[in-house]
Design goal:
- By secondary structure, the chain is of the alpha/beta class.
- It has a single domain, classed as Spore Coat Polysaccharide Biosynthesis Protein SpsA, Chain A.
- It has 7 helices and 10 strands.
- Strands 1, 4, 5, 6, 7, 8, 9 and 10 form an 8-stranded mixed β-sheet that branches.
- Helix 2 links the parallel strand 4 and strand 5.
- The radius of gyration is 16 Å and the shape is globular.
């Protein structure tokens, strides 16, 4: 992987993981690493700076898991108000001129090559503001944002879904096809995790 000039990474791990019985999804094992460490190491290897991790009620466990890595850990003090509040906390800690790779920890099975494809789409399309990976026609994560989106993201209510902004940007939202089922593998329950992990191992993905 090469350098990533002008781009930061925002890794979101601020929820209570209630559908996992309160156990943090960030610490689910992905082969020899946990999900949150895998995401952070992929972003660091690709040259994102800063790599910012937003944590909520599981902050201590996440901080321990990421020890030794040059990341910025941000407290989502308003995490209970809604996911967007946690995203806004992370955005506030990132320089205003950076493109942002937004990667929620509930999508831990994304292949590193997908990040490179998104960056390539950004470099080739100077008019695009919001780059969304798609697999078999379905949009997923992580997504890549230009700095121009920041004001709109900050204007959202803490509980408003970020996707509600999509119609506003119309043709500047670019959908980027990728051969990576990990982008749509949303791990919200133990059953979804086990299914996605089995698929990941079967594909023989690089961890």
């Amino acid at each position: 992987m090469g350098g990533t000039p002008g781009a930061a990474a925002l890794l979101l791990s601020a929820g209570a993981s209630s559908r996992f019985g309160g156990a943090p999804k960030a610490l689910l094992p992905i082969d020899e690493r946990t999900g949150i460490r895998r995401l952070a190491e992929i972003c660091l290897a690709d040259g994102f700076a800063p790599v910012t991790v937003v944590a909520g009620p599981h902050r201590s466990a996440i901080a321990h898991e990421l020890r030794g890595l040059p990341i910025d850990l941000v407290d989502a003090e308003r995490w209970a108000e809604g996911r967007t509040a946690s995203v806004q906390a992370g955005l506030a800690a990132i320089p205003e001129d950076r493109d942002i790779l937004f990667w929620p920890v509930d999508h831990p099975f994304v292949a590193p090559r997908t990040i490179d494809i998104l960056l390539g789409a950004r470099d080739e399309d100077l008019l695009g503001l919001w780059f969304i990976p798609t697999f078999e026609g379905r949009g997923g994560h992580p997504v890549l944002w230009r700095p121009h989106l920041r004001p709109d993201l900050f204007d959202l209510r803490p509980d408003a879904p970020i996707r509600s902004l999509l119609p506003e940007f119309g043709p500047q939202v670019r959908r980027v096809p990728v051969d990576d089922p990990g982008v749509v593998a949303n791990v919200d329950t133990p059953e979804e995790y086990r299914s996605a992990l089995a698929s990941f191992v079967e594909r023989g993905e690089v961890v």
